Every structure is written in C-alpha cells, then in structure tokens.
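User:
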Amino acid sequence: MEQPILISIVVSIYNEWEYLDKCIDSIVNQTYKNIEIILVDDGSTDCCGEICDKYAEQDSRIIVIHKPNGGLVSARKAGTKEATGDYIINVDGDDWIEKERIQNLVKGIEQYHADIIYMDGYVREYPDNQVMVKGNLRRGFYTKQQVQEEILMKLASTNHFYEKNIEMFMWLWAFKRELIKEKQPLIDERISMGEDLACVCECLASTNSVSVIEGGSYHYTQGRVEAISYSNNLSSIRLEALWNQLKQFCKKEYVSPSVYQMMVVIMNQAVAITDFSLFFKKNCEYLYPYSKVKKNSNLVIYGAGKFGYKIMLALSDNDQYHVAAWVDKSNKRVTMEQYTISQVEILNQLDYDYIVVAILNYNVALGAVKELQKMGISEDKIAVMDADVISEDFLIFDEIKS
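Assistant: Predicted structure:
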C-alpha cells in the first residue's frame, strides 16, 4: 500500500509570542494529519522558545530547533535541513493558515505530481480589515519550458514599478524535498529583503515542472512593526548580498535581457523599501524614481504604510526637498515622532508642488491617483514612480559592477 504524502512545515520564529499560539494552533489542527511541524526558534529573546517547547510536549509531530539568531534565511536553512517530508513548505511565526490548506495542497500534488506547487492567493491581515491578494497565473501544470517562458517572465513587470503577476513569498510555494534541500543552502544569510525571491528563482530555474493551484488560505499579518531597524551601512551590505545573489543567478542560468531587467526592477524595489535614502547617493536632479519631482520641491507624501515610512525617513534627513504634510486614508499606520499623519481631506488646505504617491503596488497606487483626481487635484501635481527611469545605474553597489 502506497504511503500517504508527508508534508514538512517549517515555521521560522523570532520574537512574535503574541501571534505564535494562533500560528501553531492553525497548523496542528489541519484536516490533513500526516505532517511534520518544525518550529525554528531563531534566538528569540521573548517567550517564543517556551511556547514552542510546550507544543512539542503535546504533539509528537512537532520538532523544535533552538538556535542563535541568524535571520530568516538562517532559520529556514535549519528547518529545511531537519525536514524529512516528501514536500516542504514554510509558514512565518506571526501568520496563520486555514485548516484545509495542507489537504488542498496534497490534492494538488496528487493531481499533477509536480516538483513545485504554487498556491496562488493569500489574505493580508490588517488591524482593521482583510484583503485577498491573487496573482495572474493560469491554474494547471507547467512543463520545464513553460516555467521558463510563462512563470519566470512574470516575476515582475518592467512597465510599472511594482506590478506583480506572481507572488514570490516562500510560504506560497511547496517544494519537493530534494529540490529545496539543494537550493536553500545557496542563499546568502545576510539577505533580509528579497530572500524569498532568491530561493524561489533558484528552484524555478532547476525544476522540471510546476503546478498552480487555488490558494487563498494563508493569512499574512500586515503592518507589524519590525523588531530591528538596520543602520544605513548594514542595509547596504544586505542589499549588496541580494544583488550579488541575483546577478550570480542570471549568469548561471543565462537569462534573457528582459529577465535581467526584471532583476534590476526588483533590486530597485528592495532598495526603496529597505533604505530609500540610498537613492540620494546618485545625486539625481529629481526624487528617483519619481521623475517629475525636481529638487527643492514642496511635497505631500501620500501613504503611511511601510514604504511611505521609508520615504519619510529618508526625506526627514535631506534638505533638498520640503515635506508639507504626510497623509493617508487611515491613521492606523506606522508613525514618526516628528510628523503627524493627516487625513487626505487636508490636501485642499495645503500649498504644495507635488503629491508623492508612496504606494508600491501599482494597482493600489493607480486607485489612489483616481481618488485624488476626484478631489479636483490636477494630474500634473500627482507623482507616481516611473518605471522608464529604472536602471542598474541607480544601484549603489559600485564594487560589484561588472
């Protein structure tokens, strides 16, 4: 009699005790029972380690790894090394999954027998609402050639700054054990932004098949304040590590110029969301990549999510632009001591040159533009990121230029 498929679930955990019970409960209570749960306590300084041990005492399927803090890549490597399942998936310690997620995954495995399964769709959990996010890939089976032509080509859009057809979060993908055990160790542990992309790219380039199935049962906690903020120098080191990883991938796989340009776009995205001030090192005459926003402009920043915060942080230490206000539709977002987040309606009372739409996702940014126009604000005064100006020249890692 054929043995049932064993799924290894690697949970990376660092200082997220207030979310952890919900996360582990959601995994333990899966309708599909043949699972191996690997809890990786990555040097937590709160009570996460004790919580992990408590669950391990109650459920023999749980393995706990306690290790010194090394970051997300290091934690995933430790968990992957320990895993014995036929397929391996990831869950982050502050997220949770619906009870039939693994059952649906196994059905997809049994239907297609692919090396990689992409579970399309997930739920962003905000403090006051939920948003379903889905990609733009057809459901079904992809051969090795189709992976190269249809999936890799959709990693990022080169027409807009942040328009995605497919999400690269590791927790949306299930990998055959042999494949992920070979590729996960290749990822540089210094990478803290884009580590999912680096690993998924390595796996996609080597796989013989991918299947895309309906997901939507993963709940991603959005808006949690990061426990660690890196210095500019450390941010540069981590971003440089990612760029090196992506360049090595491109050389090794002999990717097309269009795929390489996608990697450049992705790196610009990573810089923007990690340390926006790095763009100022190129001494550009405009607020890259907002091509219409010239130096010495009077600005309103629209968007108080993590990206808006990064722009505000960069501009607060730069005397070439003046910020008149920071606005958002919701005041339940990130904050800065020296700035108050105002409601969008205040725009009619302000004098400014441009409204900088500090929203990464192109479709969401486009919706914000339409709302501003409905308020009677001229299109000339609304600035969105311009993909046409994005180039490798604005990556500040001179030592890795070829």
